[in-house]
Amino acid sequence: MADYSKSRFAIGSPMPENAIQTTFPNMEPLITPELLKMRHLLGVSLACAKDPLTGKAQIITDDILADTIEGAVASAELELKIDIFPVKRREKQAFDLNLYQSFGYFQLSHRPCTSVDKLSVTPSNGLDVYVVPNEWIEGAYLTRGQVNIVPLTIAFVQGTYIPQQSSGGAAFLQILGNRAWIPAWWQIEYTSGFPNAELPRILNEYIGSRAAVEVLSQLALSFARANSHSLGIDGLSQSVSTPGPQIFKGRIEELEEKMKAISKKVKALFGFKIYSGTL
Predict the structure, then answer these.
(1) Which of 44, 126, 189, 275 has the fewest CB atoms nearer than 10 Å to its CB?
(2) Which H or E run includes 270?
(3) With left for phi above 0 and alpha for psi between -120 and 50, is residue 73 left, alpha or beta?
(4) Are residues 240 and 161 in the same domain?
(5) Considering the chain, what percentage of its residues have pLDDT values greater than 70?
(6) What is the DSSP track for 150-217?
(7) What value does the mean pLDDT take over residues 49-77?
């Protein structure tokens, strides 16, 4: 079990960003098979077309839907470039003098970030040379993966008194000397994802839509051999035509359009673009 007793947490909820109280329930548990059927598969029979060999129809059960939802979560993490369930991570970042003088600016690789658990100077031997005091870590923009060091408070580290720094604390690590850039100098341990497995409802809409598309695609394939059939007895005949695999095409396209719209919103919320240049 991870220890978060010394972690620096975000100042509010990931959605609405930095919210500390809301009257509308924006967060909810991961979508369940029952909610999937109610929100995205209402009126859709989960019985596949009859197998021509056995004459029996296979039913898409709740266990199959639950497995499809888990697959949709994995797809959503890759497509949206975010963590959904909490993941504790450790990553190394270079020392950049320009970023360091900008109050120790860091941009984490994974988001939304919910806590910074440890920030240290850790060279290649894996031993911590210096652990940044927790009180100096600014978490105002953690949701977007941004971390800053603001050494403007008095802190104690392992019983040692560290006085308040002036000029933004830019010189509180004398060990760096005049180096402008050092590879893999900082080590950051942090937790990304949504705490307590509570997801924004809009994200559940994306996951549910992704899972529903997969289910409808499976159902459509089962109707691929059922475009039309005819029956003839004693000179009388009857023909029946069906949409076949196109039966759910309209609904699938609608869900895919919804996913595109949600994707833009989620990436705008948790994404972070940096533009840089030289003169």
Answers:
(1) 275
(2) helix 249-270
(3) alpha
(4) no
(5) 78
(6) ---S-EEETTEEEPPPSGGGTTS-GGGTT-SEEEEEEEEEEEES-GGGEEEHHHHHHHHHHHHHHHHH
(7) 89
pLDDT tens digit string along 130-171? 888 888 899 889 988 999 998 765 444 444 444 444 333 333
CA distances from 209 to 25, 35, 75, 121, 123 (A): 20, 11, 12, 44, 45
Q: Is residue 248 part of a domain?
A: yes
Per the structure, the count of domains in the chain is: 2
Per-residue CA distances from 87 to 4, 56, 191, 219 (Å): 13, 43, 6, 34
Which three-class secondary structure state does DSSP give residue 75?
Answer: helix
Q: What Cα–Cα distance (Å) separates residue 148 from each residue in 140, 181, 217, 257, 279?
A: 9, 18, 46, 38, 26
Rounded CA-CA distance 204/208 in Å is 6
Q: Which pLDDT score, from 0 to 100, does residue 62 have?
A: 97
Which pLDDT score is estimated for 28?
94
The tokens for 59 are 């039913």
* Residue 182 φ then ψ, to 5°: -135, 125
- Domain hosting 187: range is 87-192
Residue 30 CB contacts under 8 Å (≥ 6 apart), including other chains: 69, 73, 197, 199, 204, 207
Give φ, ψ of 104 to 5 degrees. Answer: 55, 55
Least confident of 71-75, 178-182, 206-210: 178-182
Q: Does 275 map to a domain?
A: no
Which of these three, 192, 222, 256, is where a domain ends?
A: 192
Tracing tokens 């949409």 back to the chain, one arrives at 243
Helix (H) or strand (E) run with residue 38 in it: helix 33-39
Q: What's the DSSP call for residue 229?
A: E
Same domain? For 63 and 137 the reply is no
Q: pTM to 2 decimals?
A: 0.79
Helix, strand, coil tally for the chain in percent (to 5): 35, 25, 40
Contact 188, 107 (CB under 8 A): no
